[in-house]
Amino acid sequence: MLRDPLFLIALFACLGVAVILGLGVSTFGKGGTENAHRANKLMRYRIYAQFGAIVLILLFVFIRRSGGN
Q1: pTM to 2 decimal places
Q2: Could you give the CA distance from residue 31 to residue 7 in angstroms, rounded to a whole number?
Q3: Full 3-state SS string of the chain
Q4: Is residue 69 part of a domain?
Q5: Does pLDDT of 67 surpass 80?
Q6: pLDDT tens per residue across span 9-45
Q7: What is the pLDDT of residue 29?
Q8: Is residue 41 part of a domain?
Q9: How far apart, in whole angstroms, are the C-alpha atoms of residue 57 and residue 39?
Q10: Does 58 reside within a domain?
Q11: Residue 57 is assigned to a structural domain of this protein
Q12: Total domains, the chain
């Protein structure tokens, strides 16, 4: 499975979501209106990245179940 390019792309997408989430949460903790605005923007990016990661995971599962290599 670690040699499958689609699996690796999905894995990196999940890691990207985790990084964006960590950045957003740490920015929320700093306080201030500027940081709150930046944190909200990061959380919006997290939602987009999370959608992409879910689509990639579903695509990987669909291809694996239909017998693709």
Answers
A1: 0.84
A2: 37
A3: CCCCHHHHHHHHHHHHHHHHHHHHHHHHHHCCHHHHHHHHHHHHHHHHHHHHHHHHHHHHHHHHHCCCC
A4: no
A5: no
A6: 999 999 999 999 999 999 988 888 898 899 999 999 9
A7: 86
A8: yes
A9: 26
A10: yes
A11: yes
A12: 1
